[in-house]
Amino acid sequence: MTIFLFVILSSFLFALILFGLGQQKFQRMTWVASLLPISLFLYFSSFVSPIINGEVFTFFTKWVPSLGINLDFRLDNLAILFTLLITGVGSIVFLYTTQYLKGHPKILRFYTFLTIFMGAMIGLVTSNNIITLFIFWELTSISSFYLISFNNTQAESRKSAIIALSITGLGGLALLAFAVLAGQITGTLSISEMLQSSEVFENHEVSALLMVFIFLAAFTKSAQFPFHFWLPGAMKAPTPVSTYLHSATMVKAGIYLLLRFTPHFQNNSYFFTVLLIVGGITMLYAAFQTLFKTDLKGILAYSTIGALGIMVFLIGIGTTASITAAIVFIVVHALYKACLFLVTGTIDHQAGTRDITKLGGLRKVLLPLSIAGFIAAFSSGGFPPTIGFIGKDLIYEATLHGGMNPVFLTTIAVLTNILMVFAGLVVGVKPFTGKQPEELGRVKKPHFLLWLMPMLLATLSLLFGIFPGMIESLFTHNITPDLTGEESPHLAIWHGFNLIILLSSITIIAGLAVYFLWKPSYKKESSMIKFNAFSPKRLALVFANQFERISYFLTRFFQNGYLRRYVMIILVLLTLVFGIHIFINPRIFLSLKEIKALNWNEIVVLAMMLVSVLFTVFTKSRLSAIAGMGVLGYTMCFIFVFYGAPDLAMTQFSIDTLTVILFVLVLYRLPKYLKLSNRTNRIRDGIIATSFGTFLAFTIIEIMNENPVKATSEFYAEYAYKLAKGKNVVNVILVDFRGFDTMIEIVVLSIAAIGVFALLKLYLKKHEK
Amino acid sequence: MEILLAIMTGILYAAGIYLILRRSLVKLIIGIVILGNGVNLLIFLMGGLVKGNPPLIPADGKMLEGVFADPVPQALILTAIVISFGLQSFAIVLIKRAYKVLKTDDIDTMNKTDDIK
């Protein structure tokens, strides 16, 4: 099955090839890009019948075995559904865009990212290793970022892209946390193997944490309340992107994740309760919002959020019927919503506006498009005989027969669906009916692809609605038998007269009533603006701004560019950390014997040292400070002389002399020796310096209690003459054993010398004098 | 003597740090010089003090024997002294040049180099 791996990764290769074509060449043959999704669709279609018969295709090869990360792909009933959706809708969108973005200067870039996205999505739904799933998950976020910001000259687009990336990126981090945590406690990163230790997900001290992470990942990706707000913003992308990523496929990755892990969490009632609540809130909230939008894509964005809410809600009910309903609804929604988006795209492309208050009467010019729009709207509203009707049936069946409170669940499902009927009709029907407003101007006939593609999707909605048997087996052999062991419900357009038909009729009639009575307008749209102050988007932006401000403050506090601040922070921390240690655990032994053993010459040298240091620090004259510094250097010479280091004494003596001479030479050119800081600062610095000095002195005394390791010294003592034929051991170390170091040191000195020479001799420019 | 020198090292560090924390560039460099002396003294102390026995192999000997001052810290300090001279001389000349251009040796007012055309 090596070909399987190749197929999954083919998109990335293909993107590279496209990129290699170059903009010029590609522009003349944009159709080439569609070959990939079409052939992938055909390839995956060949797996359908064996998978329906219960086969599972896997591919496994080691990638990073030490971390348990493997190229582990698995094509089962849930994955095949998604791959068909991704490649199928992908083919249509790829073809549609050849006309929609015809001649666009960045069309190559568009197709490259779209292809990468498709590859990432296929990888996501076929990964059986949770880490590779995470990688593909993030790749979809990243390609989505580039596609939303496709019109990168518009500030709005860029902003929306950043918001979308930060929200979905947050979810991605949560997914990684979930992956690592689940991997740690189950001991495997393979999703199917994790199922064997499913008690971990139900009854483990961190199972709550696992749920938090997976919810965060799924809800951000699938735009659930309160993370939904990135999706309407993402509508800034070109319409094909909205169709493909932000309606039909990418936003369903969260749903996919939840479905994939439903068997793991099947005995965890909290898992389902949270989904029920969040899904319920999302679907009602989003459906309600569609009433107040005037932009077609705005309406579609909220109805997409609503649909995603319905899916989460259905998973949350947690019965076989409800999960089947959710999976059927994924397909139903993909078909009609992609169609509506493409219809909107064509309207926008031909009429130049997406404003619902300005659109009407387009059926004359765009007749085939209007037919597609009508069918999609009917499917969205659940009118028979579209597949939307079947989808709605299953939803009501699930709410009526599952959960703790069927009446309540059914009520909110009906309410949401009434508004979904309205949203579908506004987008799919309203632009085509009535009279064409005069300000719309002349609308040209579109290229055939621009109506054929939505028509294709609409036809499928109708076809599957009339003959549900064609696709039924895809849903009845899904993950649900694992869940409860029950049989999935049967897909049919007519079950006879029952409560469900009644509810469906109520939904359609009420939806039509809302459509005819409620007219979207700017006034209604702006009436919602006053609630914006409390919207999750607003809160997220406030949070982002505050976060930025605090980071700025922290950065400026620690990285304020003043040398002394850095020095101070380091010293104070060092003093505190180590000082506390010495204070708690003193190991200092002072013996008076040593003091008594002092010679008079040692006492004199120490006294000179002390005086010269204090003098250097406190003098008001620069010349005396330099003199003090020189004296200090000479006293160091004495110490070296006393304790057997004549070479050091000589070096120190000559260097010290040179430094002082150099200082004095440039002295007369230097500014006044001023006290620049105020008293408080001086006292503060004094305290810091003194405490560090004290800490250091104590540390040295403590260290001197230990016996130093002398192995290195003994090596040199023994071999200085034997190996290097020198009798001054210090010199032998420098020029022989560590000769290379010394050579580099000479280089450093030469560079410094060149620098000094340059600084002294280079002429100043006129204005520098 | 070790303990007194240890305390002396502390004093040198304190003085060096105090001067490094000043705003004047000249004081900053003097501070670095004093700190350098402190560091050298620290290394010297860590090797252990041995009075009057430099690490020289006697004319008739083949290796150091008996009591001798540790040669390793001495080699390190020798390198340190020379390198710090490179640093100091470059810094001194740099201050001079900087003062010529900027007319100040206050570090806080030296952050305006972007304004110089």
TrEMBL record, chain A:
Record keywords: Antiport, Cell membrane, Ion transport, Membrane, Transmembrane, Transmembrane helix, Transport
InterPro entries registered for this protein in UniProt: CPA3_Na-H_Antiporter_A (IPR050616), MrpA_C/MbhD (IPR025383), MrpA_C/MbhE (IPR046806), ND/Mrp_TM (IPR001750), Proton_antipo_N (IPR001516)
Transmembrane segments: 6-22, 29-52, 78-96, 108-125, 131-150, 162-186, 206-231, 243-263, 269-287, 299-317, 323-344, 365-387, 407-427, 448-471, 491-518, 566-585, 597-618, 625-645, 651-671, 683-701, 743-764
GO molecular function: antiporter activity
Keyword Transcription annotated: no
Domain MrpA C-terminal/MbhD residue range list: 607-672
GO cellular component term, pick one: plasma membrane
PANTHER family (alphabetical): NA(+)/H(+) ANTIPORTER SUBUNIT (PTHR43373), NA(+)_H(+) ANTIPORTER SUBUNIT A (PTHR43373:SF1)
Protein's name according to its UniProt entry: DUF4040 domain-containing protein
Annotated source species: Brumimicrobium aurantiacum
UniProtKB/TrEMBL annotation, chain B:
Record's subcellular location: Cell membrane
First-listed, main subcellular location of the protein, grouped into a coarse class: membrane
Membrane topology classification: Multi-pass membrane protein
Keyword S-adenosyl-L-methionine: no
TM helices/strands, residue ranges: 6-21, 28-50, 75-95
Record's keyword annotation contains Repressor: no
Protein name: Na+/H+ antiporter subunit C
